[in-house]
């Protein structure tokens, strides 16, 4: 027996002189055929098993997005969550302070272009703005040579759910009754009773009353990420976009359906909007796999630069509509932590993106003329 | 696919056999990773991170393999195969080569059309090969799934045929491709 690359066959090799094997009996042929069939079925079954075909209870990206669609409806061409939004552009000025945490190009001193999208949570792209609805900000930093950093942040200091299953179970529990059009309070209470971490997170969230607008809101990475610097040293961080304008408590004074979006448009047309990007550095032992828990007070904070957003555009004309703000599109020097939400977010966003990109695009609530008003 | 054969060898060349088994392992792993990742939340990211560079490696290898095949002399079909079987074997082989070439290109193309960064590892990433169009992305994304199932079916047919020849016809067909040297006769 010889291995590869021995090209020369022995000279006594003769063509097609196979010995005829003794014929198989009928029974033996049948047994072998059945054996082949069983092997093929096992291979095909194993393949489908990997694809979750035999585990209907398994939570998959498709089932997750199905649930979003059951709760929020299917709105052609729109994101399955955070459907209502408006797009912005600007830039990020790095002050170089982040370079000791991460070797990512975005943290070297200098400016990179940014495109983003403000949004409100929920699947209805024409929902009425409410101060209490979760506010989102997705950003894409375009680094040199085509590298990118994308992040999707929300205005909650902690996330109410520790893993994808809890998020999903809450979606199911909060489904509105077709008759009363209200979620069943008993289901909500049962969910909270079985998820004490959610109750604790909601208490933290409730202690931060929402601000008056998108522009004086802080946005949080929620999940921890692992930063790697030029020396190869790893640190776990969470980041916050801290608004330059002071906090101002929100009031629902006007009847404007697009109160928050119109406020953002008016504000950005007066002056560029700015946030400091602040990295909170974990100490050993701080949980990196549970977004419902805040890290203790006094953790080192590193202000790594300023985000400036200076123009606003309707989704209908902005390329940001077609960006999936997948939190795991990361440049070299930034990596996911062990938080199970991160991979799940990436998977579910991708599923939502694939569904909506194939659909006809309906007009956005925040139209181009609304933006010019 | 060329039907060129010579009568002076009973086995594919060492390099062809090496590429066959290397790619067999890679493609099977790829099919498993592909179907598992689209159904996975927790492992999605790590599986995708393997899927992309492995796909590009398969694309490079299938080109090398095709060129190598064109430059090599092939063993004859076993005498037990009828002309129809020979045609079916050649056609399925051509289909497999085509899918191995097209599937990674569709994957690369769909990420290009969506303007995802196509990261292989670290900061190494590929340039886009198609214009920015999310409608095109949506079509190619579906095509990628369709081709994956087609590739799996083609593999099952190929696997089933070789089992049939090895266990029932017993014409030594497998010996043409086994990694080790087999003496004729």
Give structural notes.
The complex is a heterodimer of chains A (373) and B (185). Chain A is α+β, with helices and mostly antiparallel strands and 373 residues long. Chain A has a domain at 73-157 and 208-249 and 256-372: Beta Barrel (Catalase HpII,  Chain A, domain 1), CATH 2.40.180.10. Chain A contains eight helices and ten strands. In chain A, strands 1, 2, 3, 4, 5, 6, 7, 8, 9 and 10 form a ten-stranded antiparallel β-sheet that branches. The longest helix of chain A has 25 residues, at 26-50. Chain A is globular, with a radius of gyration of 27 Å. The N and C termini of chain A lie far apart (81 Å). The relative contact order of chain B is 0.15. With 185 residues, chain B is mainly alpha-helical. Chain B starts with 13 loop residues before the first helix and ends in a 16-residue tail after the last helix. In chain B, helix 1 (14-38) runs antiparallel to helix 2, helix 2 (44-71) packs across helix 3 and helix 3 (83-114) runs antiparallel to helix 4. Helix content of chain B is 65%, strand content 4%. Chain B is elongated. Chain B has one domain (14-76, 84-176). In chain B, strands 1-2 form a two-stranded antiparallel sheet. Classes of the chains: A alpha+beta (373), B mainly alpha (185). The interface between A and B is large, with 66 and 62 residues.
């Amino acid at each position: 027996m010889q291995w590869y690359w021995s090209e020369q066959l022995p000279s006594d090799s003769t063509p097609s002189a196979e010995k005829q094997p003794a014929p198989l009996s009928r029974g033996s042929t049948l047994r072998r055929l059945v054996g082949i069939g069983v092997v093929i079925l096992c291979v095909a079954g194993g393949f489908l098993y990997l694809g979750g075909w035999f585990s209907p209870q398994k939570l998959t990206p498709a089932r997750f997005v199905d649930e979003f669609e059951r709760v929020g409806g299917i709105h052609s061409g729109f994101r399955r969550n955070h459907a209502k939004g408006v797009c912005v552009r600007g830039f990020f000025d790095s002050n170089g302070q982040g370079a000791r945490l991460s070797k990512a190009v975005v943290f070297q001193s200098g400016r990179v272009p940014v495109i983003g999208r403000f949004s409100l949570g929920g699947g209805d792209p024409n929902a009425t703005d409410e101060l209490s609805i979760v506010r989102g900000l997705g950003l894409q930093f375009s680094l040199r040579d085509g590298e990118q950093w994308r992040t999707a942040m929300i205005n909650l200091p902690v996330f109410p759910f520790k893993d994808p299953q809890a998020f999903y179970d809450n979606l199911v529990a909060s489904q509105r009754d077709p008759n009363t059009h209200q979620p069943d309070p008993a289901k909500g209470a049962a969910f909270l009773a079985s998820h004490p971490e959610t109750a604790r997170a909601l208490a933290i969230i409730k202690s931060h009353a929402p601000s008056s607008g998108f522009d004086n809101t802080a946005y949080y990475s929620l999940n921890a990420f692992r930063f790697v610097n030029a020396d190869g040293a790893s640190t776990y961080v969470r980041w916050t976009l801290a608004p330059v304008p002071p906090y101002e408590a929100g009031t629902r004074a006007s009847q404007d359906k697009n109160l928050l979006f119109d406020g953002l448009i008016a504000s950005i047309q007066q002056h560029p909007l700015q946030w400091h990007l602040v990295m909170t550095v974990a100490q050993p032992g701080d949980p990196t796999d549970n977004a419902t828990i805040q890290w203790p007070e006094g953790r080192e904070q590193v202000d790594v630069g300023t985000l400036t957003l200076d123009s606003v555009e309707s989704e209908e004309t902005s390329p940001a509509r077609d960006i999936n703000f997948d939190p795991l599109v990361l440049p070299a020097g930034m990596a996911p932590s062990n938080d199970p939400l991160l991979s799940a977010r990436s998977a579910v966003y991708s599923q939502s993106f694939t569904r909506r990109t194939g659909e006809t695009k309906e007009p956005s609530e925040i139209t181009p003329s609304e933006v010019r008003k | 696919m060329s039907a060129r054969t010579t009568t002076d060898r009973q086995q594919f060349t060492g390099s062809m056999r090496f590429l066959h088994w290397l790619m067999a392992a890679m493609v099977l792993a790829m099919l498993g990773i592909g179907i598992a990742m689209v159904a996975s939340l927790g492992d999605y990211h790590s599986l995708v991170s393997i899927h992309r560079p492995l796909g590009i490696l398969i694309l490079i290898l299938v080109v090398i393999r095709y060129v190598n095949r064109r430059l090599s002399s092939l063993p004859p079909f076993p005498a037990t195969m009828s002309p129809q079987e020979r045609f079916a074997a050649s056609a399925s082989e051509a289909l497999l080569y085509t899918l191995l070439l097209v599937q990674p290109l569709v994957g690369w193309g769909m990420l290009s059309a969506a303007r995802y960064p196509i990261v292989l590892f670290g900061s190494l990433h590929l340039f886009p090969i198609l214009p920015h169009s999310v409608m095109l992305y949506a079509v190619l994304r579906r095509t990628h799934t369709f081709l994956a199932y087609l590739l799996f079916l083609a593999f099952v047919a190929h696997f089933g045929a070789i089992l049939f020849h090895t266990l029932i016809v017993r014409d030594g067909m497998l010996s043409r491709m086994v990694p080790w040297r087999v003496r004729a006769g």
